[in-house]
Specification:
By secondary structure, the chain is an alpha/beta fold. It is built from 11 helices and 8 strands.
Length: about 325
Amino acid sequence: MRHSLLPAVWIALNACGQVPAETYTYKTARSCTLQADVHRLPGETPRPAILWLHGGALIFGHRGNLGAEQRQRYLREGFTVVSIDYRLAPETKLAGILEDLDDAWRWLRAQGPRLFRIDPDRIAVVGHSAGGYLTLTCGHRLRPRPAALVSFYGYGDIAGDWYSRPDPFYSRQPAVSKEEAWQTVGREPLSGTPAPNQRFRFYLYCRQQGIWPNEVAGHDPRSEPRAFDPLCPVRNVTAAWPPTLLLHGDQDTDVPFEQSEQMAREFKRHGVEHELIRIPGGPHGFDRKLSDPVVAEAFERVIRFLKERLIPPAPPREGLGLPGAR
């Protein structure tokens, strides 16, 4: 589909929900169709892209969960945004979810230039929560590596006590029984569940019992610790890791702030270009409140980080009195 509207008009209409995303199927896994929504400005000039990964503990969530305000800001700055679904746990274990991410990356680079005019060498990955975890896995899994990574309250260690022991915060909530938890999920693979969704009850059960790694990854951290080596980004940092921006609230009761601190320490140890933005008092999902000046400034840093790595500066124009101009 070709767009004839001016970019400013396109953004305004998109913000009002009057312009649908272009939706593509990037993969079919058994009976599960995996789709990508593409949000872009009109025109034929190849643009840098953001591969956006939704959260939801790998158990629920949808490619449409990207907030409209953030999406519009990415568009206004010249990025094409590609938001994907992936198969969800426990019906699909983590190895299969990561295969979906690999396949989405290959599809995006191979088909994106033709289908929606992106530059395959200027793609960043941005994710929130579990999407932040998946974003961090891109640092060591994807080839060629993304140009940059942005993790909002993501995590690099899925085998640690925070996920493999009963969680104090979630354990204060009314207990979810095993029977109730398993009634909220099924047997067949699926992706893209709306939120809020009853599948959160399964997540709550996993956190109360300290069995999220077991049910999502299909391995027990205590009896199979080495099985988590390829699944934990913090164990796979090298000097070849892409530039990475980490954002995390220090009052996050779902993903501990220490998860981003741990990644930052590994990045420093290996000489990886990175920055950790701490949101004082920030809860999980702090970025939903862009009206907060602290959050707004943090998101401005995201924009600058992406532009610095995906949008090269324009060359100086001749005849404007610049040094060397004739």
